[in-house]
Amino acid sequence: MISVKVPASSANLGAGFDCMGVALKLYNIIEVEEIEKGLIITSSPDDPSIAKDENNLVFRAMKTVFDEVGWYPRGLRINLINEIPLTRGLGSSAACISGGIYAANLLCGGKLSEEEMIYLAAKMEGHPDNSTPAMIGGLVFAVLEDKKVNYIKFVVPARLKFAVFIPDFQLSTEYARNILPKYIEFKDAVFNIGRATLFASAITTGNYELLPAATQDRLHQPYRKKLIPDFDKIVNLSLEAGAKGAFLSGAGPSIIALVDENYEIFEQNVKNALASMELAANWDFMILEADNSGATVFSVQSTSLKR
Ligand SMILES: Nc1ncnc2c1ncn2[C@@H]1O[C@H](COP(=O)(O)OP(=O)(O)OP(=O)(O)O)[C@@H](O)[C@H]1O
Ligand SMILES: N[C@@H](CCO)C(=O)O
Fold first, then answer.
1. Which residue, judged by its Cα, is nearest atom 8 of ligand 1?
2. Which ligand ends up closest to the CA of 8?
3. At the topology level of CATH, where does 161-289 sit?
4. What average pLDDT values come out for the chain (307 residues) when binned by 10 residues?
5. Does 91 appear as a known binding residue?
6. Nearest ligand, CA of residue 88?
7. ipTM at complex level
8. How do the domains of the chain map onto residue ranges?
9. Residues 6+ away with beta carbon under 8 Å from 258
């Protein structure tokens, strides 16, 4: 049996719609094993939206690898241990896709290169900003091209923390993409290009004072925040508590605030504020570091199945 650990991820990071994302130290474990025949899928904790047949996202990701390399297991057992909350903007689908591809590649003897796995994952997810950090870790700048992903990975220092606010409701990426406008104004495109460029420079040089300005966005948040009644309150309380920028995580509804030194004081202030504020939803709050490793082998146990 092969066991793979794959991180959560947060896409966009403010202005970098569909091209910037970071892996986070919150993990799903995917255990896979070739069996004599059939497909057995188990999951804990379970969720009605997790399919137990060929429609399961991890299985579908694994199948893209089998189709690509022309090798198929006789049967397959998949066990999912899920820490990443579903449909909350923390890359649960990307973890399934990147983790499934990574696990399938191990199962079939490592026929695909890392570049090929990154491409397959981005193609399946439709954009590379969650799938690439889930696969290789770090903070990633990535563009999906016709046959490859062009990307740069930046290893995030532990000093930078990601304060994650997770509400008790879900928002599917599909829905949150469908509400975006087909066209945007030229000045809004210019606004985002400047901020995304500033963000890349600020994060890689450690000039965190620029982050509050660099995490502003006009491409998706103005539209999506209407689906998240507490958005402005959470962003404002984070900035007042000293965050270096706060933004929607991926397609939402989770919100992430960037915190530098003094994160313990920030954490206490936010917890006090959350306890005393009137909010439309219940919000979980946790402080995470970036994961710089991506999908990794958790354990390998030999199987009795003979070829
Ligand atoms: N552990 C899992 N096992 C199987 N399927 C999963 C699992 N986690 C998520 N999924 C599938 O992915 C869907 C959620 O994907 P969606 O893209 O809407 O949200 P997300 O990936 O959590 O958010 P975002 O893409 O904004 O970061 C679920 O409805 C389910 O079909
Ligand atoms: N860039 C994507 C991330 C969600 O998977 C979006 O915002 O729709």
1. 92
2. 1
3. Alpha-Beta Plaits (3.30.70)
4. 97 98 98 97 93 97 97 97 97 98 96 98 98 98 97 97 97 96 98 98 96 98 97 96 96 97 92 93 96 92 65
5. yes
6. 1
7. 0.97
8. 2-155+291-300, 161-289
9. 160, 161, 162, 163, 208, 211, 215, 243, 244, 245, 246
